[in-house]
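Input for the complex:
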Amino acid sequence: MTKYWKSIDSKIGQDKDKVQEKKITWTNRRNFLKLFGFGLASTFVLSRCENAAHKAIPYLIKPEEITPSMANYYASSFFDGDKYNSILVKVLDGRPIKIEGNNLSSISQGATNSITQSSILSLYDDTRYRKPKVNGEDSDWGTIDIEIIDQLKKIKEENGKIAIISHSNISPSTKKIIADFKKQYPTTEHIIYDPISISGLLDANKESFGKRLIPNYKFEKAQVIVGINADFLGTWLSPVEYTKQYVQNRKVSEDKKTMSRHIQIESGMSLTGSNADKRIIINPSEEQNLIANLYNYIANSLGKKEISASKCAIDVSKLGEELLKNKNKSLVVCGTNNKKSQLLVNSINQLLENYGKTISLNNALLTKQGNDKDMIDFMSNLKSYKGIVFFDCNPVYDYPNSEKLTTSIKNTDLTISLSTIPDETSELVKYVCPANNYLESWNDFNPKEGTYSLAQPCIQEIFDTRQEQVSLLKWSGIKNDYLEYIKENWKSEIYPKTNRVFDFGDFWTKSLQDGVVEIDVKSSEPKFKNNLSSIKLDDNKKSDLELQIYESVNIGSGKYANNPWLQELPDPVSKVTWDNYAAISVAFAKDKNLETGDVIKINNTIEIPVLVQPGQAKNTISIALGYGRTVVGKSGKDIGTDVYQLIETKEFRQYSLGKISFEKTLNTHELATTQSHDSMEGRDIVRETTIDKYKENTESGNERHKEIEKHHQSLYKEFKYEGHHWAMAVDLNACTGCNTCVAACSIENNVPIVGKEEVLRAHEMHWMRIDRYYAGDPENPEVVRQPVMCQHCDSAPCENVCPVGATNHSSEGINQMAYNRCIGTRYCNNNCPYKVRRFNWFDYNKSDALKGNLYDPHGMTLDLPRMVLNPDVTVRAKGVIEKCSFCIQRIQEKKLKAKLENRALQDGEIKPACQQTCPANAIVFGDLNDKNSEVSKLYEQKRRYHLLEELHTLPSIGYLTKVRNKS
Amino acid sequence: MSEISTREPLIEGNKSLKDITDDVFNPIIAKPGKLWFLGLMIAGSAALIGIIAIVLTIWKGIGLWGVNKTIGWGWSITNFVWWVGIGHAGTFISAILLLFRQKWRTSINRSAEAMTIFAVICAGLFPLIHMGRFLLGFFIFPYPNTRDVWVNFNSPLLWDVFAISTYFLVSLVFWYVGLIPDLGTIRDRMKTKFKKKIYKFLSFGWTGSAKHWQRFEVVSFTLAGLAAPLVLSVHTIVSFDFATSVIPGWHTTIFPPYFVSGAIFSGFAMVLTLLIIARKTMNLQDYITVNHIELMNKIIILTGSIVGVAYMTELFMAWYSGVEYELFAFINRATGPYWWAYWIMMTCNVISPQLFWFKKLRRSIGFTFFMSIVINIGMWFERFVIIVTSLHRDYLPSSWEMYKPTLVEVAIFVGTLGIFFTCFLLFVRFFPVIAMAEVKTTIKNK
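Predicted:
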């Protein structure tokens, strides 16, 4: 088309354009295509250099209950053959990531312990068996089943004996399956043993009541509690349940000014002992005699017949007097695996008329059933067994004198292990039929008479594993799958016992949803038929040096030794991580010129570092079980020393040795503790009072609080918290120091594991810690504990020193960290009087911009363990400070939920991880602006004070003074 | 000048103006001696070790250091404060003494200023590398950004950023302005074409005209006026890092004057260390005379005594305040696990400088050299004591910990010494060590 030009200027302009157009002629069609082609090709080629695309397939039809990034909670049960816990499993985007307590259970009442909390990591344990194995070689289920069934049949034809070895089994359906297996293979024996045996207690109860079970203790009903070597708040039988009960009568308030009195008689300083109002220190050899003397004193006072016992060195009259004064309101428990001691204790409780009041034989606890005699018989007739099935147990490690078993396993025709991870036993057997983790399994439990609970899979089997019960069903030739089996069993056994309000389908659904079913089983208390007249006390002589072997609160029997969360959790008493040790008394250390870290040799067999432990009986050594595993993943291997092999097997397994020899070696071994100073230095850190003083004046012990409040003033205008003002109350009288909160906090908030070397360098990362101080006589000190997390000061010293404003205060009173703003000057940490801030010394979780500098000694960044990370909490990069956030993600979640439902947030709806799991109900979180909230009410208590409140940091954590029941 | 003439001459050897120029110029064109190369080699290697350690720290993380959950600052901040302190003498000599018309400073101000700059470079390194996220260190500058985040002006660390950078810039400019006439002289004398070109560029076309001199004087005095308050403010602000915190042993109002006098104290000691070596190796005995050394020793007695009084005041206040934490912090310093550090500090800083009351010792070059080292050790320990012993046992005994530096931390410190001496050795080789122009004003023209 002709272009008309308007003026001469525009004509010239057009010509110029033409000239320019000519200059860039290279942009013709051909060149364009060339460039286009090249560009396309290079884009394509270069884009191939990117990481391979991961498959992310969206749901075609969204399952009703699954919303991406919204968590679901499934009720389930934890039982590791030792302790039971009813739980809720938090499942997010298909991954179980956290365990919480189930409020509906009357046993654990919404709480857990640290082992239950940490057990979720075992699901993602990288060392788990991934496939069945035959003689150490990978195999498949088809082949292995055929071979095993063939061999079982052969043994059956030859009339050879088969043994199923397991820990206590409280699953009704599993019991039935074993019975079915026995029907198929009648020569089968089921042998139950517990690594930490209470056979003596069970046998004593059998003799006293005709029932071999653990009575139902009711610590909340007792005014005087006497614990004899029974760590019932830490490890003994059902510590979560007992803690829940115990604190009920330990908590005091303006309305309830009474509390129980707790006397602990023990050799080593246990968690329970450190909470006692009075602690009597004895040698293990003196224990039975002391109980006998106590019995005699009480019997004498009540005009009953005494038994013959030599006078004991400790005066029991005061103790006896106290118990007598609290007849039918007292409770004596003993944790020693000795029938005679337990019989004496039963008789004492009987004389004190405690049965039916503080102890009941109804609703008995069933979690431990092992009979020492069975295992002793098995061990002495090993040769007669042609087949041995290890049902999720590891006797080569956790049973004494196991060399015999080791050789016998090698010589037995058929040996099967149903273990989830490689252990000392499974490494020796011919067939490894790896079981599922409990979070991948169906199961049912009967932890207490009348209490049933279910476990349901929260994730599909990660590996080619199969749960134990299915294996047994298969080998017994039963086609049913285990879920159907449980259902049928429940229909026929459990459902009829209920009041049948629902039909079975609804009953099942409700049971599955609740996780627990509790059925009233009322029967009269059985008759007491103890006869002590013929009792002949053990001939125990006090020796120069005695050994006590105990269960560690964190590691337990050693099953979870490969769990770095548990290994890094400080011992509640000594604060040692990643090790066990020989606890010796201060006086003994002085006598023998030993200090913490010196390695000693005991009985010429084991070498172990000593730890000077205030409160240890003088000529005794206490060592924890569960360490020194040899076949285990990296986190447990060669950590500590195994003492199972020191246990003596007489009629009962004895966890104390009357006479041991020791020698000092020239070696030393560093113990990684998280607290290096034990004294409060006379500072006003934990405030305490006695119950008598408290009755007179509820402010006693806390007089300074008022004084300091008077000085409350500021140059600045006080900030007014509109809306919420979050705060927390910590009852120091309730807190037992069990560590569960620390574990829960670390798991919830993706706190990295740093390993022993780093703990030694004071680089541990726990957001929460439980400070423990000793006071008084170092031979028998008083112990106080204090959970310390970020105090969320309203006038926070950390906030104003951060040059980049990475830490600041929310309008709801929370001290916040903006991780991606933090440049890591650590000034905030220096200026924090509570030292609760933690710095990322290294790249712990592969989140650093620089490569090749990962610091992950325990493989927590491997693909599998990484699955446990909580996606709602950022993992922190190298070089930033982190700290307690009051579980801000939980606050946010519940706030949004309330908003969506168009309602006000309820008090108690938000529970930080520490509060949720606390068995002692010591932690309460809430809104101070809500005058009716629980936390506001606790703030009203005269016992409330703030840590270092004289600094005027105005913390949002209120502590309630500790009250002791002593005169 | 009349009062000068009645005194002993400031420089000795009856120098003519040409002699002065020759004496200062000759080392620049002469081939450096073996000793210089040896020194450069040692200092350079040390610097290299330090740089390796720094790179390692940035790559692997602060976990390579001995600092921990309780003691967040260890050697790094100790060294930072120590180096900043050392820098102070240079500014004090050139700015405050200039304003007070102390002519004797002319022989030493050039090298003292150079020392300031190198010391501040070394000092500035530490706050940078002690950050966990070095690569994001720029967050500390208040630059406009789309995320609407701003720095926290309440934080003493931010004040530090401004104080140190201002100080560095002013010192650098002041030093350089002072150099211009001398660089002009060197340019004129330089025979090699290439070198002449460089000095020509560096001297900014200095002609020595009256107008130039007049402007030079004005700028010098203006900069001196700017620099003088910085002498007081920089270390005051550094002391705020501690004084504004809540940690017992840090939270003290006496810190600003105490830190400033401590800084001048240690700075003069470092000037003495350097100049005693320089005058010997570079034959500057006539310029840096025993009189100069004695005058500096007098300042050391003064500032050392102020520091001593400050220590005593701190102790008194710890007791008088009645605050248990404060009292404990000081008892712990003197008798706790780090007692040795405290007593090294006391001996080196309070007791030993008092020996300078004896004129003989004051005028003894050997003794002064020894003392200058002792004082620098003492002042390093002062910072170590303040930082580490206050932090390691603060409020809650449950968190009490010990601190031990790692090899990496030691290497970084050695590295900064290396950087410092490398810079100083290069300086004495390529720049006029004595401010020729200024020295010339103090002698009568013959």
